[in-house]
Structures are given as C-alpha cells and as structure tokens.
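Hello,

Our lab assistant flagged a job as stuck in the queue for most of the afternoon. It eventually completed. Since we weren't sure the result was trustworthy after the delay, we are filing this so someone can double-check. Below is the sequence as submitted and the structure that was eventually returned. Let us know if re-running is recommended.
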Amino acid sequence: MLEKRSFSLSGHRTSVALEPDFWEVLGHIAQQEEVALSTLVTRIDAGRGEVQPLASALRVFALKAK
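-- returned structure --
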C-alpha cells in the first residue's frame, strides 16, 4: 500500500506516494542529518533530472543510502 505525503516544492504543492518502508528510510536519514523530511525531499528534488519523477528519485536516494 502506498502512503501519500504532501510537500511544498519551489512554491508549488505536490504529493508523493511511496511505500511506507521508503518513507521510514527517508525519515531516518532526515533525522540523522537533523533536518525536516521536507528539507530532505526539497534537496532530492533539486538534484533530480527533469525526466525523473520525484517518487523515483526518492526511492533511488533511499536505496543508495541503505
């Protein structure tokens, strides 16, 4: 089951649906870096290519961090 979360990225509201395990890893990374999850998502969003969907970029980031 996908879990949807909403963020404000570049002044626009967007929702991202990921599996709970990915949200858990991303939340853990944000906690380790002492930043809000939204800050981490914003950073990942800024570093992704225009053709890569945000959900894919978040999954890849989480997998590489593991």
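-- support follow-up --
The delay was a queue issue, not a problem with the job. The result is valid. The longest strand covers residues 3-9. The longest helix spans residues 20-32.
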